[in-house]
Amino acid sequence: RPKDEVMGHDLVAEFISPDYRDSVKAVLDNALNGIVTANFEFPLYTKKGERVEVLLNATTRRDGNGNVSGVVGVGQDITERKAAEKQSETIANDLTKLIDTANAPIFGIDTEGLVNEWNQKAVEITGFGKEEVMGRNLVQEFISAEFKDSVAAVLNNA
């Protein structure tokens, strides 16, 4: 909005959605009391009613004598970043569901060879529940002695 449309208006009451008014007011009150707030996220609604995600940093504003004269707030539009985070989370959840419901055993190990993924088909085939295998060494604890070396070699070259 143009400056002349917002100057002199109550920021919290007029421009902040009702469910965030208390928390935004607390941030501003803290700034008036000398408490800096960094990286506070909240939605702001535009004149057209569009939601904008904002990252706010607020600090005390002082006059030449050091007296509190207001709050300086610096906001950044993080709408695109929040949308990308949500999309990444959705993709990760979809991938997790796909792995867990695959009709083939799927397992994962970290760089130390410790199990960090074990899908439902792996549970069905081995009889070991996911909770039982997580964090345990796949080759040393679950591969038969005759195949330990060859499986370890394959995994080390993966």
Tally of helical runs: 8
Instruction: Characterize the main sheet.
Output: 3 strands, antiparallel
Mean pLDDT: 92
Strand order of the largest sheet: 1-2-3
Q: What is the chain-wise order of helices and strands?
A: HHHEEEHEEHHHH
Question: Can you put this structure into words, describing what you see?
Answer:
Strands 1-2-3 form a 3-stranded antiparallel beta sheet, sandwiched between helices. It folds into 2 domains: 3-83, PAS domain (Beta-Lactamase, 2-Layer Sandwich); 102-156, 2-Layer Sandwich (Beta-Lactamase), CATH 3.30.450. The chain is elongated, with a radius of gyration of 27 Å. The chain contains 8 helices and 5 strands; from the N terminus they run αααβββαββαααα. 44% of the residues lie in helices and 24% in strands. The model has no long low-confidence stretch (mean pLDDT 92). Residues 38-90 form the PAC domain.
